[in-house]
Specification:
With about 200 residues, the chain is α+β, with helices and mostly antiparallel strands. The chain has 4 helices and 5 strands.
Length: about 200
Amino acid sequence: MQQFLLEYRLTPHATTRAAPCEMLLGRKLRSRLDLVLPDAHANVSQAQHRQCASYDKKSRSRSFTAGQEVWVKTFSRNAPKWSLGVISKPVGPVSFLINVNGQIMKRHIDQVLEAHVKPRPPPSDPVDDDDFLYTPELPIIPPDQVPEAEPEQIIPNNTEESVDQSTISENSQTEASTSYLRPRRQRKPLDRLTYSRL
């Protein structure tokens, strides 16, 4: 009888489309059929392992020792953004006490950079810098052989009518005086609804 009731309470109802136990408890109960389904915990652990592996490809391990010179991020308005300091001692796995000009600061590893720059390894195939520059060979012309530029020719437009110079100057003066005025609004008469008797 108990097994029958368990199966009944696990079966979704035709009207509510949800199992009675799910309506009561807000979650599904585990049954023997759930053992056939894939394990959610295994899926989560596999996804976490994939995320960890992809993160480790891009990340680089940083470690600092006591007495090492580093650049420290400073948050003072009067000081430069980065100051040179010496690590006094590590406080935790990612925190350090750093001596900057006689002042002790506690900084996270993200706020600390190495003070020295690692030398770049020599290239395996040395290449001359001139190979990278491409300069096309242009013919060199002496100054006495350079052709003179012809003056521009103004071609009159026959389609437009000739305008008198006096009217052009008058139009320019009126445009200058009216350019500061605001445009006038064109008002249309109102079209009101009127009732007419038949």
